[in-house]
Design a protein that fits this description.
globular; alpha+beta; nine-stranded mixed β-sheet; 13 strands; single chain
Length: 351
């Protein structure tokens, strides 16, 4: 048994309405005098009302290439990561020296020494803490990270394992790029961090959900669907409109087969902790799984309030589920996310 003892989310410092972000994107991404009706429509249809950003909006026009954006990433990721990690440990009633494994994930910047390494001395983690920085999983990394903590704790049941995610998606927005993929990304993505504290069976206590089982799934011939084209200007998004079609083709069978192994059906799942990939993706998830009205309300609310935070998003949804829904003891939940590969990660929970 692995128990999730705490989840803490940290927003980026600057908060804006969707209209304010749209106007910034019009100034930095569209040619002077360009018709902005497509941009306005994409941003209005994203179902995002507000977002947090790591910089004031006027600073984005000043970022000159990948190096400048990545320098901002490193400094802010350390600050926000420290806040998220402290908050999660405080909620769990633990000290930094209790942490045995620190997994760090991000897909919006790179650092060597890695962000987790920079946090060891700053937060007072033990010098023998095991570290695992992960890059490239993208939106799926929140769910995959929880699953990998569980894998680790099965072998070390007396340990404390922490997942830290920091995603500063706004730093990847491409200036002077009016492509549909870039405009969709600027409509959906925001900045945030989250940390999860998980306990092995030997020290698990409290009321957090247990991780029952996990499932990873890669889908064939879908490498082109989502990812980065890394250029001197930074991370240029690859975002195929076929993402909802991939969800419709594969997700239902994977979820049903996974649940069936544990004597469950989708209708038995009391709490759906789903990554807010965007309106069309969420509609596809609801459709193929025949979810009842309201099943993804927490996810839709997260999308509206903070946008898509890549790997941090599903962890924010998990936190909100714990705080707002107060699941009944013994009730099953399913944490799920999808990302580059194209792939999905499923985590069966029990409260």
């Amino acid at each position: 048994m692995t128990r999730i003892a705490a989840v803490h989310g940290t927003p980026a410092p600057y908060r804006y309405t969707q209209r304010e972000v749209t106007d910034m994107v019009a100034r930095t991404c569209l040619p002077p005098g360009a018709d902005r009706r497509v941009l306005d429509r994409l941003h209005e249809n994203a179902r995002v009302r507000t977002r947090n950003m790591v910089l004031p909006l006027e600073r984005y026009a000043e970022l000159d290439g990948f190096g400048a954006a990545n320098d901002v990433f490193i400094g802010a990721a350390v600050d926000m990561g420290a806040d998220a990690l402290r908050g999660a440990l405080r909620t769990a009633g633990l000290r930094p020296t209790d942490v045995d494994l620190l997994m760090f994930t991000s897909v919006t910047g790179v650092a060597a020494p890695s962000v987790d390494a920079r946090l060891v001395g700053r937060l007072g983690l033990r010098p023998d803490v095991k570290r695992l920085p992960v890059f490239g999983l993208g939106c799926v990394a929140g769910a995959a990270g929880v699953a990998r903590l569980h894998d680790y704790l099965l072998g070390r049941p007396d340990d404390v394992a922490v997942l830290l995610s920091v995603e500063l998606c706004s730093l990847t927005f491409q200036r002077q790029d009016a492509s549909t993929a870039n405009l969709v990304a600027t409509a959906l993505f925001g900045d945030g961090a989250a940390a999860v504290v998980a306990l092995g069976e030997g020290r698990a206590s409290g009321a957090g959900p247990e991780v029952v089982a996990t499932r990873s799934r890669m889908y064939p011939d879908t490498e082109h669907v989502m990812g980065w084209d890394i250029r001197s200007s930074g991370f240029k998004v690859l975002l195929d409109p076929a993402v909802p079609d991939v969800v419709r083709r594969y997700l239902a069978d994977d979820v049903r087969d996974f649940l069936a192994e544990h004597g469950l059906k989708p209708k038995d799942v009391a709490h759906w902790v789903c990554h807010p990939g965007g309106p069309k993706v969420l509609e596809a998830v609801s459709e193929v799984l025949s979810l009842p009205d309201g099943a993804l309300d927490v996810t839709w609310r997260s999308l509206a309030e903070v946008g898509n935070l890549s790997s941090s998003s599903v962890l924010h949804v998990l936190r909100d589920t714990l705080e707002q829904r107060r699941p009944e003891p013994g009730s099953p939940g399913l944490l799920l996310a999808m990302g580059p590969g194209f792939c999905c990660e499923l985590v069966l929970l029990r409260w």
